[in-house]
Amino acid sequence: MADEAAAPAANGALKQLVEPPPSPVELAEAITASAADAAAALPPPEAPPVIVDKQPMGHRQRHAVGGSLVASTALLMTQLLAIWPAVSAGALDPPKKRLTPLLFGAIDITIDPEVVLIAMVMLVGALGALVGGCRRFIYFSARDELTRRDEWSYLMRPLQGAALALIVYFTLRGGYLGQDQTAPVNPYGVAALSALVGLFTRHAVNKLTDVFDTLFGQPKEDIEPMHVRDGSAG
Known about the structure:
With 234 residues, this protein is mainly α. The chain has a domain at 59-219. It has 8 helices and 2 strands; from the N terminus they run αααββααααα. Strands 1-2 form a two-stranded antiparallel sheet. α3 packs antiparallel against α4, α4 (113-142) runs parallel beside α6 and α5 packs across α7 (201-216). The mean pLDDT is 75.
């Protein structure tokens, strides 16, 4: 019985001794497979942090930018209140002119109804952009991430909002956005649209891009890649 049990074990050991050893190719494949399994089990390496060289905004710059945002917003709101009676009178049928006090009564002028509507569009567009600028300033100020490179952006935002709101208004009155040119002008609707354009300038630019592509087609450089040949190659 003991001899019969020991016979298979002896045959297995003899078989291992008789079998040829693995070839170098098989050893390399086994090592590669084990290394791949070990690498797959490891967690992915963390990407190195992106370091951007930005100079922080000083205390004087912070006070100047924050004070400018507050003063500009207050000034535009008071001037909007000053011209709004003339805007409402200009939207009547027939439109009427009204004497408008500007700069806290320092100047009293009578503005054409169309011109006062354009002035209202620019004021409200700049106000919308100032709202976006104030939100941006508060966000980065709370995180202590205000940088000197952003100083000019706060100055350019209200100018961009006013100009872009005026462009959208002209596009709307021209009928390119589906607006009936003969329909009466609703000053509240125009003011709301101008404020949204100033607040969301990127969306307004994308809409104007779609309108321009529909009218004049997409430029070729946006459809086909531009191939630049190096003149130094001879």
